[in-house]
Write a structure and sequence with these properties.
The chain is built from three helices and 15 strands. By secondary structure, it is α+β, with helices and mostly antiparallel strands. The strands form three sheets. Strands 2, 3, 8, 9, 11, 12 and 14 form a seven-stranded antiparallel sheet that branches. About 5% of the residues have low confidence.
């Protein structure tokens, strides 16, 4: 009985190992990842933004604008919120800049006439548009791969504010992801993980259906003074999975290849 029992145990272990290896062979490709870290925007004041993803150069020209809710202050010709690139940066990330590099951050100065749930939107637009009273051309930043996390350095003055990031999925649905409270003093790195319920793939080809970045929104809480609000942003960065399974004919699902083929 003992020998029979040991044989049964050995047989069970052998079957489990074989099943585990089979499962690995079947699903290993699905579990493969290629994690890349990309700085989307350094907030240094330039409009041309480039990054390499999967061996390809992606180049986009966009600028930043700010709008606010209805009780934003207007003083003569001066309207709030104001946006500017200022000589400031987090020393925890860039040191004291002894080399004299041109380091800047995106600064937002807002005022409101009333307390309440006021908001300030900070969003990208197509570079060079919105001049001479025209409306700027909308622009959303394409996010390569399947977005995992996003982080940004933010300067706060211990005001009771909150920050949100907005993303659009391939169905056109916009998702607000809380980045946290700005009730802290000085620079802090705010990091968010993209929720699993936000879709980033399709059932049909091409499977990858990346998100676009729409805007940041700063909220004021009703108990907070709103006569002077200052917030600064530096280095918007993402971590993304750019892995795509190859198969016979995978080039026919590449949007650029599709355009090339059907332009003939």
């Amino acid at each position: 009985m003992k020998q029979g029992g040991f044989r049964a145990v050995r047989l069970a272990i052998f079957l489990l190992v074989m099943l585990g290896l089979t499962g690995f062979l079947v699903f290993a490709d699905e579990n493969t990842v290629n994690i890349e870290t990309i700085v989307l925007e350094d907030f240094n004041g330039g409009a041309n933004n480039e990054w390499f993803v999967g061996g390809r150069l992606h180049s986009y020209n966009f600028e930043w604008r700010a709008d606010a809710s209805r009780f934003a202050t207007v003083v003569g010709e001066e309207r709030f919120p104001r946006l500017s690139f200022v000589e400031a940066w987090p020393q925890a990330a860039f040191g004291v800049n002894r080399d004299g590099l041109d380091l800047r951050s995106l600064g937002i100065w807002a005022r409101f006439d009333r307390r309440g749930y006021n908001w300030v939107d900070v969003y990208p637009v197509a570079a060079g548009t919105g001049q001479d009273g025209d409306y700027p051309e909308p622009f959303e930043i394409p996010l390569p791969g399947r977005l995992q996390t996003m982080d940004m350095w933010v300067w706060g003055m211990n005001q009771n504010l909150t920050l949100e990031a907005y993303f659009r999925d391939h169905n056109g649905v916009v998702h607000a992801v809380p980045m946290g409270s700005l009730a802290f003093i000085g620079w802090r790195n705010l990091n968010i993980r993209i929720p699993n319920h936000i879709p980033q793939s399709r059932r049909t080809l091409p499977r990858l259906a990346g998100l676009t970045f729409v805007k940041f929104r700063i909220w004021t809480m009703p108990t907070e003074r709103v006569d002077n609000i200052f917030v600064y942003f530096k280095q918007l960065k993402i971590v993304t999975d750019t892995f795509e399974s190859l198969f016979d004919g995978s080039d026919l699902s590449d949007p650029e290849r599709i355009l090339e083929l059907w332009a003939q």
